């Protein structure tokens, strides 16, 4: 009886949220993910004053700034950030394999502090070009952090908390967006005098992360499987779990380590050709394209102009924008608490469904606002409903699933592919949206509605539920669609493609 009670207590201790795990999650998410969100929205509210600065600098060089050139310069300012994010995504695999997950996050702060200084002095040196270049560099920071933080936290978290902790980076992205929207209020920093300070503040989280994150463990999976350092892996795992007996998790990692020795680290090229991971790869590409091409960042990049088009009074736009950001934070926070109960797939389906419907109704509302005086209120409601839908599923869940459907050997390459698709799609929206508005007007949101619908159908048909499952169980879920067979034996697990000889079998994790 006493032995059963001891075992029961040990089971209770497994998977709990310890102080070390909570602080590591908060520090890495604030130091890195926060900056991603902050720099998405930071140029929105002060855009009129920044464009006046662009115009004065341009004309001080004895050149006339036409409307088309002004639109182009501002589109570049917005879109260079996601372009930098694409370059950052390309750096994920080599950096995390060489420096580790925590080491990469610490190194990444260079790409935050340097551009923060550049943007802060842009008005002093009378150059808008320095802002555009800085937006590329801070984009590299965001591209790395948006992939490395979920990877780091996913490897720190126990199985039963993987989904909730995996959403925390997205929560801090929304907090970053809201913070930029609050600072962007005209009476705070969203004015002619305050915007350089507002742009420079992005360096503060980086400094705090540099000071605090070194005191927390590196990913135990990285230390054991990729570095072969079982001593530090054990110590880190003990600190994270809050108890000494971590042998069960170490055993799982050792099994995976044997698999890694056979496979080695997968390059992106190898990942693209590996049949056993084909539908996992297609799925993360579709989800990341759907996430970004659904129009969410068009709303954050151009929120003020969208609300202005919807008929909101100029002085009220900033407060409506802040209200939208607040809803975004609250709904993402709700997703943290419900993802383990509801599952990943259901949240994705509900989220994309809400976004699709909101885009359709927003199109109708914008096209009828001159006819019906109450339509602007419908437009505002549609934007808020869209944000709610995106916050509970499409925004946070794709990175969680990416972390779950790939193993240690393929995870860096998978995040590299997912991040590249994510940021290229983000770049496309940021650059093209102003021209979509000019060409299609209110009907531009129909494009986003169609993308949401297609993504929803794909998720319904292809994506399995992955909550509270092991890597082996997830591999089984994809096995039939990939045309592979999984054989589980008492001492080892192997996965082989149907009709392929044993010397081409691929080992996978089993416990």
Mean pLDDT: 82
Structural class computed from helices and strand pairing: mainly alpha
Major beta-sheet overview: 3 strands, antiparallel
Lateral strand order in the biggest sheet: 1-2-3
Note poorly predicted spans.
Answer: 1-13, 488-511
Looking at the structure, what is the overall shape? globular
The H/E string reads HHHHHHHHHHHHHHHHHHHHHHHHEEE
Roughly what percent helix? over 70%
Straight-line distance between termini: 27 Å
Which percent band covers the strand fraction?
Answer: under 5%
Rg of Cα set: 24 Å
Query: What is the number of beta strands?
Result: 3
The total count of helices amounts to 24
Blueprint (SSEs and pairs):
Elements (H helix, E strand, L loop, with lengths): L1 H12 L5 H23 L5 H14 L6 H24 L1 H17 L1 H11 L8 H28 L5 H22 L11 H6 L2 H10 L7 H7 L3 H12 L5 H17 L4 H6 L4 H16 L2 H6 L1 H7 L4 H29 L1 H25 L6 H18 L4 H9 L5 H30 L4 H18 L8 H12 L1 E5 L4 E5 L8 E2 L4
Antiparallel strand pairs: 1-2, 2-3
Helix pairs in contact: 2-7, 2-8, 2-10, 4-7, 4-22, 5-7, 5-22, 6-7, 6-10, 7-8, 7-21, 7-22, 8-18, 11-12, 11-13, 15-21, 15-22, 15-23, 17-18, 18-19, 18-20, 19-20, 19-23
If you had to describe this structure to a student in words, what would you say it looks like?
- The protein has 24 helices and three strands.
- With 511 residues, it is an all-alpha fold.
- It has a three-stranded antiparallel beta sheet.
- Helix 7 crosses helix 21.
- It is globular, with a radius of gyration of 24 Å.
- The two termini are 27 Å apart.
- The model is unreliable at 1-13 and 488-511 (pLDDT under 50).
């Amino acid at each position: 009886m006493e032995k059963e009670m001891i075992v029961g207590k040990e089971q209770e201790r497994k998977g709990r949220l310890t102080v070390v795990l909570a602080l590591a999650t908060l520090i890495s998410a604030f130091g890195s993910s926060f900056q991603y969100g902050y720099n998405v929205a930071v140029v929105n509210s002060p855009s009129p004053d920044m464009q006046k600065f662009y115009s004065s600098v341009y004309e001080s060089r004895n050149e006339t700034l036409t409307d088309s050139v002004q639109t182009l310069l501002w589109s570049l300012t917005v879109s260079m950030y996601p372009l930098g994010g694409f370059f950052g995504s390309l750096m994920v695999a080599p950096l995390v394999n060489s420096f580790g997950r925590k080491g990469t996050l610490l190194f990444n702060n260079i790409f935050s502090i340097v551009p923060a200084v550049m943007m802060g002095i842009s008005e002093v040196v009378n150059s808008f070009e320095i802002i555009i270049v800085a937006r590329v560099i801070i984009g590299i920071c965001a591209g790395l952090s948006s992939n490395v933080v979920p990877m780091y936290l996913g490897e720190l978290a126990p199985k039963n908390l993987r989904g909730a902790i995996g959403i925390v980076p997205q929560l801090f992205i929304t907090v970053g967006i809201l913070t930029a929207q609050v600072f962007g209020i005209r009476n705070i920093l969203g004015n002619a005098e305050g915007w350089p300070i507002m742009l420079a503040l992005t360096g503060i989280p980086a400094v705090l992360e540099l000071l605090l994150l070194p005191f927390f463990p590196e990913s135990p999976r990285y230390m054991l499987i990729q570095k072969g350092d079982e001593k530090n892996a054990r110590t880190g795992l003990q600190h994270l779990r809050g108890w000494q007996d971590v042998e069960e998790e170490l055993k799982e990692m050792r099994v995976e380590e044997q698999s890694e020795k056979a496979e080695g680290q997968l390059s992106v090229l190898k990942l693209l050709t590996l049949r056993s991971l084909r539908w996992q790869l297609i799925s993360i590409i579709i989800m990341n394209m759907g996430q970004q091409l659904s129009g969410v960042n068009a709303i954050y990049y151009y929120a003020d102009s969208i609300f202005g088009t919807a008929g909101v009074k100029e002085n009220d736009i900033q407060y409506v924008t802040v209200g939208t950001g607040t809803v975004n934070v609250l709904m993402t926070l709700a997703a943290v608490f419900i993802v383990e109960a509801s599952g990943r797939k259901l949240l994705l389906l509900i989220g994309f469904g809400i976004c699709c419907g909101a885009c359709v109704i927003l199109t109708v509302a914008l096209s009828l606002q001159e006819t019906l005086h109450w339509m602007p209120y419908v437009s505002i409601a549609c934007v808020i409903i869209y944000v709610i839908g995106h916050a509970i599923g499409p925004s946070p869940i794709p990175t969680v699933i990416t972390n779950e459907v790939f193993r240690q050997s393929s995870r860096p390459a998978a995040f590299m592919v997912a991040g590249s698709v994510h940021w290229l799609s983000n770049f496309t929206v940021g650059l093209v949206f102003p021209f979509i508005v000019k060409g299609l007007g209110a009907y531009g949101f129909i494009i986003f509605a169609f993308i949401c619908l297609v993504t929803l159908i794909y998720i319904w048909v292809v994506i399995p539920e992955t909550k509270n499952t092991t890597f082996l169980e997830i591999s089984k879920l994809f096995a039939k669609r990939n045309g592979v067979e999984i054989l589980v034996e008492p001492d080892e697990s192997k996965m082989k493609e149907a009709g392929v000889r044993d010397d081409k079998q691929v080992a996978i994790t089993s416990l």
